[in-house]
Amino acid sequence: MKDLLAGYRRFRASRWPEHRRRFEELAKSGQSPQTLILTCIDSRVDPSIIFDTEPGEVLEVRNVANLVPPYAPDEAYHGTSAALEFGVRVLQVPHIVVMGHQMCGGVKALLDGAPPDAKEFVAPWMSMAGPARERAMQCAQKEDRQQCCEFEVIQLSLKNLLTFPWIAERVAAGKLRLHGAWFEIRTGVLMTLQPGGSFVRADDGLGFTATATTQPS
Q1: What is the pLDDT of residue 215?
Q2: Which CATH class is domain 31-204?
Q3: Torsion angle, CA of 195/38/135/114, rounded to 10 degrees?
Q4: What is the rounded distance in angstroms from the CA atom of residue 121 to the CA atom of residue 134?
Q5: Rounded mean pLDDT, 41-68
Q6: Mind giving me the DSSP string for 105-155?
């Protein structure tokens, strides 16, 4: 906790003066972010650093393994779905990015089984990605399955986004675009999902492309 307070003091001393006007304007006029980024809780993956964003530019939704659950409006608690509803229906963001990453612990739990102390919530949560695991297990080389599954989880989440009727409607109307991305921790390289299902380096000039436009069958 001392490190956090030390960081806060650095923020107040150096960054707050730099960003003060922006925060004051955001407090006065409200927020209108253009992108909702749904990514993993992993401490090594920070969207504000990766995309060099300023306050007010993006919404961040973080959970284990950047999973989007299917649409299920019931009386249970749905933190990710609530965040999506707020971002899409209230703030009307025009872009959603699902970003996975290298060495994802949630994906590892999906492939190899959750650790003994992560079976109450992590294991049931990751079970929704069963189809991604099945596809990843078809990789001939065992060492490729982790990354393959990380890619598959991103695509599964994008498909699940389209089970939300108010997301599918906005996508069909051209008011919302869905994107996939994967961050390699070791090298700092970002890869973006293309419509055909391949991931390419964003450095190569192929940036974000809409990856889903219709309701899944």
Answers
A1: 46
A2: alpha beta
A3: 170
A4: 21
A5: 97
A6: HHHHHHHH---GGGTTTHHHHHHTTHHHHHHHTT-SSGGGHHHHHHHHHHH
